[in-house]
Each structure stands twice: as C-alpha cells, then as structure tokens.
Amino acid sequence: MKAEFSASANDGGARSGTVRVPGGTFRTPCFMPVGTRGAVRHLSSVDLAELGAEVVLGNTYHLMLRPGAEVVRAHGGLGAFAGWEGLTLTDSGGYQIFSLQPKVDDRGATFRSTYDGSTHVLTPEGAAEVQADLGADVQMILDVCPALPATDEVLRAAVVRTAAWAGRGRRAFLDHPDAAGRQSQFGIVQGGTDTGLRIESAERTLEVGFDGYAVGGLSVGETRDQMLEPLAAVTAMLPTDQPRYFMGLGDPAGLVEVVAAGIDMFDCVLPTRHARHGTVLTTAGRLNLRNARFATDDSPLDPAFPASPAGRWSRAYLRHLLMTDEPTGRRLLTLHNLAWLLDFVDRLRASVEAGTFEAFRRDTLDVWG
C-alpha cells in the first residue's frame, strides 16, 4: 500500500504533516527509536508508549537469526510479539552490509551469524519475504550502503546493484500473498556524496516505484556540509505526497538540517547508545556524566527539561549508578535521552507549524552545530 503523506504546514523546505500506512498514521517530522532485537535496550514497549514514540524500528538481520522470522510471524508479527501497539518499521539488512562487510555479489549478501557463526544468504527477494513474516507496517528494500569516503567505482557499483536489487525486491513484495495488502515498502537512494550518482539512483528508484522513499548511505563518515547538497538534489525529485526517510540520523543539528531539506522521518541508535556510555542530551548540549565534576552535583540532568523521566534524581546520584555499573543508571539515562529527543522533535514540528522553523534551526545549530 502506498504510504500517503498529507502536509499540514510548510516553512521553507521543512514540512510537517501525517503519514498513513496500512496499520495507522503517525505525525511528521518523526524520530523512530531503534529496537534492534525487538526491544529498545533497557526499555519496554510500555516505556516507549509513555514516552510518546509513534514508530519503532526493528532489525531484520538480527530478528531473522534470533528468534527467527517464523517465530515472530507465529506470534502475530513484530508489534504483537513485543507488546507494542504503535507502528513498526524494519530495515532490510542493508546496514549490516555496511557494518559487517559480508561477501556481496549480484545474488545478495552472505553473512556469518554473529550468534553462532552459521552462514546465511540474504537476497532482495529473501529480505522482502523475511520482513513480510516480521509483519512491520513498513519494510525496506535490500540495498548496498558503502562507507564514506569511497571511490567513484565503489559508489557506482553500489548504485547499480541497489537499483537491480530494488526491482527484484519490489517484484517479490508485490507477488507475496499478503505483504502488499498490509505493509508499505520503501525504496532506498544511494550514491554517497556524489550528486550526479544520487540523482541517477533517485531516477532508477522512482522508475521501480515504491510506497515511500528513503535516503541511505549518508551520515556514514562524511561531514554534514558534504551530505547536504546531494540530499537536497534527491528530495527535490521525490514525490511530495509520499514520506521521505533519512536513515541513521539522530543528532539535533543533523535533524534540523535534513528537515530543512524536506525529510520527514529518521532513526538512530544515538540517544540510547549515548545513554549507555554516560552521555546525556540536554538543552545546553551534550553532558558527559562520567566527568568527575558531577560527583557532587545536586542539579537534575537538564533543568530546562522538567518533564525528564529521570528528573527527580540528581546528576550525582545518576553518575554514581553509572560508575558502579548499576543497570538502573543506564535505564534512567536511556529514558531521559529518548524523552529529550522526542520532545526536541515535537518542538521542531511545532516550529514548522508556527512558521518559526528557521529561527529554531539557527538556535539548534548554535548549541549543537
């Protein structure tokens, strides 16, 4: 089913609105927490609902290995399996092509399981079938995401292979007995920081035709300035009535820049990974709670964010939990970071609605840029 975007406001290139997918609707701009193995680490689906998350991302590679896509299917799909009543999106395994560097050929990617060393081949058709079993509201096409910087030869090969896989994955999705009726499938544009290759990849992806479109292969080693020109070239080509998804981005400065370019959706492990290592998101910027100066600090993590789920505890206490490796500390910092970032996106959305996005963008870059 085509994912439909309805705009409620535009401010320059930024836009806010609502996306409709088979399972329901969600507001944009939208940050999606990452639940790699069917859960955001240290949190439950109840926590995510209370934080106000609307869409949660699951990882196809990990879930197909454990517990197995057939197990998830037997329990009614990823949302039902996890007790999550919101919407879900599954990536395709393309990020693992970037991070695990498996053997890749025209057929697909050959991985060794990170759990038991067994060998698995993931093809574009297989990725569509596995994600149909996982039952997420949105599934992603299998793509090739090269690390940056990369040679022209590597980038072109990724564009060509991603386009070939897109056609195969789309046919498999449309031919599946029930996937197309209950899921949306998004295509992915590659091309690194080469604007010409980005345009070519967008043209080829649009030619296949998808229910929504994502920009992959950026925020993977290049500077923010290097990513903005090719990103703008792509978003200018994408349909205005379908959602646009920037994959793997979660820092506030990056978010305002991609929203300015017309992006609607984004995901990242950044807020949860930061929390596990003691880095806290605050209105004044990042705060490293491991720093000794916080050992006797009685103030809350972010005095300007009284709604923080960790707001009742002092920096000193939370640092103590972190330094003694008490799991409660990582849980509280994860709750805070996700709450803070979701609130940030709420305020970003409100600025688009109010016509004050450019001021919000400048203020954000002053702190986070």
What would a concise description of this structure say?
This protein has 369 residues and is of the alpha/beta class. 43% of the residues lie in helices and 20% in strands. It is built from 15 helices and 16 strands.
Question: How would you describe the overall organization of this protein?
Answer:
The protein has 369 residues and is α/β, with parallel strands linked by helices. The chain has a domain at 11-268: TIM Barrel. It is built from 15 helices and 16 strands. The protein has helices at 45-51, 60-65, 69-74, 78-82, 94-99, 124-134, 152-175, 179-182, 195-208, 224-235, 252-260, 270-276, 315-323, 327-354, 357-368; strands at residues 4-11, 14-21, 24-28, 30-35, 55-58, 87-90, 103-104, 109-112, 119-122, 138-140, 184-189, 212-215, 244-246, 265-268, 279-282, 285-288. The strands form 4 sheets. It has an 8-stranded parallel barrel, surrounded by 6 helices. Strands 1-2-3 form a 3-stranded antiparallel beta sheet. Strand 11 (184-189), helix 9 (195-208) and strand 12 form a beta-alpha-beta unit. Helix 12 (270-276) runs antiparallel to helix 14. The longest helix is centred in the C-terminal third of the chain and has 28 residues, at 327-354. The protein is globular, with a radius of gyration of 20 Å.
